[in-house]
Amino acid sequence: MDTAKASWAVLQHDRELAVLPILGALASIAVVLAVGLPIWLSTDGIDDGGSSAGSDPMLWIGGIIILFAVTVITVFFNAAVVSGARERFSGGDPTISSAIKGAFSRFHVIVPWAILALTVGMIIRLIQSSDNIVARILGSLLSMAWGVLTFLVVPILVVEQTGPFQSLSRSGELLRHTWGENLIAQVGFGIIGFVAAIPGIIIIALGASAGSVGALVAIVIGFGWIALVAVVVSTLTAIFQMALYLYATTGQVPMGFEQSGISDTFNERSQGPLMRGFGGGGLGGGGFGGGRF
Predict the structure, then answer these.
(1) Rounded CA gap, 127 and 153, in Å?
(2) Pick from 275, 240, 254, 249: nearest CA to 90
(3) What angle do CA 7, 249, 256 make, to 5 degrees?
(4) What are the Cα distances from residue 292, in Å, to 101, 161, 185, 248, 259?
(5) 96-110, 113-127, 175-189, 237-251: least confident range
(6) What φ, ψ does residue 124 adopt, rounded to 5°?
(7) Across 49-53, 196-200, 229-233, 289-293, least confident range
(8) Given a cut of 70, is residue 282 above it in pLDDT?
């Protein structure tokens, strides 16, 4: 729990960072309504009960546009949180404005990465939707592997401003020495999110047995709580991503993470930070040195 506590401490200093995922969610909703609603209303899908809506090319085009826009928005606001965390770790005092400005300055690398991420994501989803059980298992494994491989891509986009394939390769390079903490963090934050969301799930379940008004209130409160948990966990994860990236590339433990065990990310055979042009330790055999979550 040490890295989660350290990330939480950073968030307590800069609570405005948690606003960024909310802005991202609102922007995504706005895109869905602005693009999807007019296209849907312009088709005859509603008039004939949707029998021809699925074959209407406008719906497919609109769906692709929405998926792309939402992916860009998601990566953008994640980059904004990471940029704000970087400012805090550098001794600054990030604001919503400075974090968004930092993400805007990286927009030229965010969009190409969003295209690659969306493409890979759609391929994985296609595999997972197969009726073949082996294909579905393979899709799930690919999804997990992709999540681990790309864990440090956004910090790389923010700091190094490299293209999508270079960023992916760089993330894989850092993964050789950070895979242990990477996996523990993803699983750990996921568990924290699930446990924290349980009260919301219980409220929704209890509300389902109540009257219509009570059920509506319970659903609003329950989903509101779950959404809040998702925002906080997303922000904590982005903060940790920046901290892990900084340690992996500089060898310096970011401010506030001194007692988090993040230095255990590198195994005993590591000979130095994985900086560009650094001629020291080899990259092979990146073991896990017992990093603490």
Answers:
(1) 23
(2) 254
(3) 25
(4) 33, 30, 9, 16, 10
(5) 175-189
(6) -65, -45
(7) 289-293
(8) no
